[in-house]
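Appendix B. One record, verbatim.
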Amino acid sequence: MWFLVADNGRARVVEYRLPDKAWQEVACFDNPDAHLPVHEIARDRPPRVDESAAPGHHAIEPHTTPREKTAQQFARQLSDFLLKAAQENRYDKLVLVSPPRFLGVLREHLDEACKARLWDELQHDYTTLTFEELRDRLAKLELKF
């Protein structure tokens, strides 16, 4: 069973193996853009539009904020990793552990092969825990391994 423990800035994949009940960290990911100020993320100016009725023009506002865009790109990166691992049969069950807002973004980007292995979703932010703390918290969960 794999646990993807993620927020919009960092992620870890932790494996729980039976029958030996061993925990192992499989992969770590970092999204450095998540820690930047918004003005650093949005380096490009929004496009301009000329108004046909008046000589002025205004910027077209993006439908997603720069922070949301980086979160979606990070979720896509994580989803690609999980899909490749699923195709290689590296895990049979997947548990997503994430704060509610990023959990929805992750869910949007999961491929059908990953969704088929999705065992559970937990709304927690465990990304700052040490491996030992993370292992202990996950082991205490009432999941039927």
